[in-house]
User: Fold these one by one.
Assistant:
Number 1:
Amino acid sequence: MTNPLTSLMTMLLKRLRYIIALLGSMTILLVLYIQNSAVFFFTCKRAQRASHICLEDRGNSSWFSERYKPTVPLLLNSTNSELHANIFSWWNELQHVPNVANYTEVVNQLFSLFPDEEHYSDAGPDRCRTCAVVGNSGNLLGSNYGQLIDSYDFVIRINKGPTENYEMDVGSKTTHRILYPESAVDLNDNTHLVLLPFKVLDMQWLISAFTTKKITQTYKEVPSTIKASKDKVMILHPEFMRYVHDNWAEGHGRYPSTGFLALIFALHICDKVNVFGFGANSNGNWHHYFDETLASFESSSHGGDFEIQTINHLNQENKISMYKGLT
Ligand SMILES: *[C@@H]1O[C@H](CO)[C@@H](O)[C@H](O)[C@H]1NC(C)=O
Ligand SMILES: *[C@@H]1O[C@H](CO)[C@@H](O)[C@H](O)[C@H]1NC(C)=O
Ligand SMILES: *[C@@H]1O[C@H](CO)[C@@H](O)[C@H](O)[C@H]1NC(C)=O
């Protein structure tokens, strides 16, 4: 005869095991659910914040859309290198040097040495790339912009503009440096050297600087070599230079300044463009933050005044954000 108490206990124990198993699997499911929704929540938060940063600029401006041409080639590669005759003759006459080499042959050499790719073709509503374009104006001095500048995805610097000893005001990160042989400086391994070519000889110099080191002279003495990563080299497209000259400088000056080209380049590869170190300082003087010599900006070969007007217009239209330093 079985004890009724014992059979009750056995039954309860069976149920209990069942209940424990049920509770266990429910807990596991709950943990998985919370984990997933947390990931989902934070991903959304980040995307929301990112797209908010980028969306605030997407105004509707006919002034902008008349000038902005999304299809212009930005960087040279072996398949887009052929130039329309009118662009080639404009570009080839920007700076005169003797013994001009065959453009086609030099380009072929370029892309046997440097990356032959299509860069930054990822534009779209989901991309949110923030960029700082850092000019060389004296208005950076005392600005304390360093940390802010370093917080952007891309930091594009121009010519010789140094970071060392100016970190507080200009930051220390450099993802891209736009330069030409006469303005060349050594780069960090993680910086893209972006050549701004004004002549076939500039492309030959780039090849020489990474190989034979034989070219030491253009219209003036240039460094025979440069410290930089060969696999990070990029070359601005002559057609892009012409486009900036026609559409954005509206033909003012002989050709656009490096800073202006850098800014329009950023407009094409970034979704949010923040501009530092452009224009005069608060006394109305034009000078570089790293030397006190006054630059005679107005009389140079660039349409300086007009470029600044265009930059201010871009700022008014919220296409860029200008940081003007101490005012
Ligand atoms: C955008 O601008 C164009 C041209 O100025 C105009 O025709 C169009 O209606 C505008 N769209 C919106 C949404 O404001
Ligand atoms: C330049 O070189 C290319 C390829 O070698 C050749 O087809 C072309 O005719 C040359 N151009 C001139 C102007 O010599
Ligand atoms: C070169 O760039 C163009 C865009 O300017 C692109 O369509 C083409 O695919 C690129 N070629 C290579 C070899 O990456």
Number 2:
Amino acid sequence: MAPTSTCLAFLVMLALWSCSAASRGVLLNDVEITMLARHEQWMYLHGRVYKDATEKEKRFNVFKENVKYIEQFNKGGNQPYKLSVNEFADLTNEEFKATRNGYKGLCLEDKLARATAPSTFKYENVSAVPSTMDWRKKGVVTPVKDQGQCGCCWAFSAVAATEGIHKLKTGKLISLSEQELVDCDTKGVDQGCEGGLMDDAFHFIMSNKGLDTEINYPYKGVDGTCNAKKASTHAAQITGFEDVPANSEAALLKAVASQPVSVAIDAGGSDFQFYSSGVFTGSCGTDLDHGVTAVGYGVSNDGMKYWLVKNSWGTSWGESGYIRMQRGVDAKEGLCGIAMEASYPTA
Ligand SMILES: *[C@@H]1O[C@H](CO)[C@@H](O)[C@H](O)[C@H]1NC(C)=O
């Protein structure tokens, strides 16, 4: 932020604060004033505008609580990951789940997750896997995208895995269309911004005989009408999809060593909301509510094994849009359920 705009934001804040504080006879201490200034700066940085003073006060209070939580957490010291006051800092965890992960807190229709799943696992006999893998370094991963306030994580997850297998098959990395899935893949379980499943997205791509490019069928972040002409343009095709045997990080490792893999996780916690760097160790449960893509694995400098996961919340979240999630945990489901419902397209 330029010094002048910081200064301006501060002056505006001060003016607003003195009016409202004076009118209500409230005396604010230094901590409160600093927090107000931080909120103003944060609003400026993220282009946040509130509809009225009531909304602003409500948001400020949420912001304040979140900042306290984040700073308390980071002060804890011996955590392998850090949180930050990111663009989601004025949302309660409930609001965050509702707007980011999707309608009613779910962007995955979990109940029917395995309904269409074939049972073969082509990588079952893979014996030697590299000790680390980062598909980004092999040019198999497109830049991080942003689903916005639309619960179509499932489309982003399926598209990233499809982009990966397409590159591995053809040598061409092409950014593909999530919006086509949101608009056109509506006959089965998948319901656009209201949630869906990666497997059903793969099923659509297969039966549609391909998917259009991101450029030709760009992302809007809202449910739309299927553009049949664009949907009949096929930039990438898949022959099918397979599920990684459930609850086995060993099986997931074989798959991720071979190609980017769609995974479902429980991303509903505050620590996930504010994750900024390091190896995420939770807390989280196994209520799968978010679809992302495992694009590698490795071991951190301090010896922690992790999955490298591509998210669809833009590049300001996490490690430039990615999260490293602890790998090789005691629970067979994997951390946040990452090994429960992994799948990948074939080509
Ligand atoms: C794995 O090996 C077994 C035993 O040789 C074989 O029956 C099975 O078909 C193989 N699986 C795959 C996916 O190739």
Number 3:
Amino acid sequence: MENLFQDTLLQSAGSEISISRVLRKLPETMFILYMLIMGVSAFTIQPEEHPGAAENCQFRGKYFKTDFRVEGEPVVLRCPQVQPWLWTSVSPHTSLAWRKNDSARMVPGKEETRMWVQDGALWILPALQEDSGTYICTARNASYCDEMSVELRVFEKTEASLPFISYPQILTLSTSGFLVCPDLSEFTHNKMDMKIQWYKDSVLLDQDNEKFLNVKGTSRLLIHNVSVEDAGYYSCAVTFTHEGMLYNVSRNIELRVNKKEEETIPVIISPHQTILASLGSRLTIPCKVFLGAGTQSTTMLWWMANNTKIENAYQGGRVAQGQRQEYSENNENYIEVPLIFDPVIREDLNTDFKCFVRNTLSFQMLHATVKEAASFSWGMVLAPLSLVILVLVGIIWMHRRCKHRSGKAYSWTMFKTGH
Ligand SMILES: *[C@@H]1O[C@H](CO)[C@@H](O)[C@H](O)[C@H]1NC(C)=O
Ligand SMILES: *[C@@H]1O[C@H](CO)[C@@H](O)[C@H](O)[C@H]1NC(C)=O
Ligand SMILES: *[C@@H]1O[C@H](CO)[C@@H](O)[C@H](O)[C@H]1NC(C)=O
Ligand SMILES: *[C@@H]1O[C@H](CO)[C@@H](O)[C@H](O)[C@H]1NC(C)=O
Ligand SMILES: *[C@@H]1O[C@H](CO)[C@@H](O)[C@H](O)[C@H]1NC(C)=O
């Protein structure tokens, strides 16, 4: 029984060995197979004949931008891996094919349905909410193939969907600036008769006035002297005709109005020029800058050691620049960047630390020197302590000596009397 069990164990160990041998050979086998397939395919596969074949095709990831579109409107997706300036002139030897990621079927090239591929671009007309999803574009020629995916989200146009489908744009208070109607290039081939209509909160801005100017022949709306009330949702629309049908192509914009950012001359209010620290301990020196009403966003603040950047001078990170903090107290703005020593060593006492601050108005610098603090040292504690110990030892010794003597005297007496 035991023998049988051992045999089984041995056998299974043996089979494990042979499996692992196979596994070790697997990459080689795969490589040979791959080379064979590549060799054969180089001679036989014509890209146009196998647009759906995804083998040997490199996936280059998902495009960073998601397309948010409105239901009922035309949607055009371009292959993200093809540069915009090549859109109209992709090499005739390159085929661009599209499929939705949950479907193996390629989108057809002819206009049979709402969805087709034309000049390498995916057209959906009109788009429905269920078209939302991930689309994959495969670009292939005789020697090369790659894929990228694009995400499309189609929303019903409602007030509630505006935050999702709007492009954020920013203008500065009390200045004049443009809103731009984005991503229209597919629908406005002839720029001169481009007719864009602009809406604010669904009200048509049909008259040019001292506030809004619809700049003809461009996709821009000029807003004069931007005020806080100008913030909010805008939409712009062009009409597009396809096979006798008129479609709206609209884009939504959320205008945010920022306060004008003004700069002031920064003042370094900390550190004090000499910082006391004890060797071996952790030390933080904050460099604190006062800006008053000035903006923090354009002010740079950094530390250097012996005119070298901190991260270069201390590659091990013993001394490092901490997180930048921006805060306001009583409506006055401050920035702080700490320099952190973990720990302080003797070399720091000879190093020239400087805090720099710079904006467009000013450039300033402050030296900081680390000095050894004379407060606490073991020597100072140990000296009196050792004295006390010495005295104690002395007392004990003398005490014991006395006891010993009297003990001796006692035994003498015992001896004498006992005799
Ligand atoms: C398709 O995309 C969805 C969401 O983007 C993802 O969860 C899913 O794994 C993808 N499917 C395939 C086959 O790539
Ligand atoms: C195929 O495409 C790649 C990458 O775009 C390019 O470098 C190569 O020259 C193309 N080959 C042919 C035969 O067009
Ligand atoms: C801009 O608008 C503000 C009110 O919003 C007004 O006080 C100011 O005079 C205007 N400036 C110009 C140059 O029109
Ligand atoms: C296009 O949009 C405008 C404004 O939203 C609307 O008045 C018009 O009816 C729309 N046209 C079509 C064809 O949907
Ligand atoms: C900075 O320079 C001083 C003297 O030149 C030197 O003793 C010190 O080690 C230097 N510190 C660093 C971090 O290089």
Number 4:
Amino acid sequence: MEPTLPRPRGGFATRAVQGAAIVPDVAQTPVGPAIWPSATWSTPRSSEVGALLEDAAPGYVYGRYDNPTATTLHNVVASLHEAPAAWSLASGTAAIHGLLSVLRGKGRVLATSRLYGGTWALLRRLRDEAGWQVDHADLLTPDSLAAALTDEHTVVHVETIANPSTAVADLAGMAQVCRARGVALVVDNTFASPYLCRPYALGATAVVESATKYLAGHGDVVAGVVAGDDEVVTAVREHAFELGGSLGPFEAWLVVRGLQTLPLRMRASGANALALARALAASGRVARVRYPGLEDHPQHRLAREQFGGRGFGGVLSFDLPDRAAAEAFADSCTVFARAASLGGTHSLVLHPASTSHRQLDDGALAAAGLGPGTIRLAVGIEDEHDLLDDVRQALAAADHPR
Ligand SMILES: *Cc1c(COP(=O)(O)O)cnc(C)c1O
């Protein structure tokens, strides 16, 4: 039986407004994730608002600080990353900004040169507008990191799996170097998700992910998360609400909903990606098939150990002879959609030279490990045979570009 609520009182307009704040006191636990889209929260006594604003009591005060749906998200993300705490922000980029801001102090940032394009743009803007000092080096191994680190660096930023080369970083090894040098290590784990890799458990200071990708997993929300110690996460939280970047309840709800199927989606998309990578490598029609699950991938063994044998992710890349062939391939796909992003249920095809990396000439493309004919596939969870058929017919179309 539906609980009876106290009826709103007053005039027609007052009842219309104040009736919305009369909610059932539900003692049961909902099975589906709950959502409270309230921008502000009331308290029995005025003094309690002050305590909430000062973080002296648990509870909610204002939606820019946090919301109960986000609290559920933080709890799940911390658990999956085997970290004490987690926080959510309005995008992966906001999460990277928040985390690097609090860990940098006033020191220099050392970031991998195999960086997600949006993170390049973020760091360039912080350098130009906020005076950040940022260096880049090819950071995959403890040795490459040790060679690039100087005493001025306070934080190192690397990615678990690089885009679109799929190079895999030795996180435990780099965490040891950072610890010995007293430098924070931030790992962007977006391409792996906590299903494959838990950088905090491997010794990183903190993990950051674009929840837009595998965590939410359905291509219907933009969000970011960080996970780490209480101290780091509290600092990110304060940074987020003072700069205005906290995640809203509707977005948090979509991520919580998507996270429930993370292991199923990671398994399905990893199995599809491995089948496609093997078929492409065996076809003899493309060059440099890059996927960590292939035995000839440079970090195949590291990836198998670091990802616990749970798979190698859903992203792979390969090279067609030239730009025209790559464009013909992408244009003729019917199951793969031509779109940026990754990590959703839907398979996507991207031609970096004409999209994400369009500002680069062929020389700069080569420096980024790309060619004019490179294709990136972000593999979803559709039927394997449909994806294989689509790639086969697109390869045939690439043989005769218009
Ligand atoms: C998408 C992505 C980001 C940025 O995340 P947004 O949610 O788009 O801000 C950062 N790093 C990697 C590796 C990504 O794929």
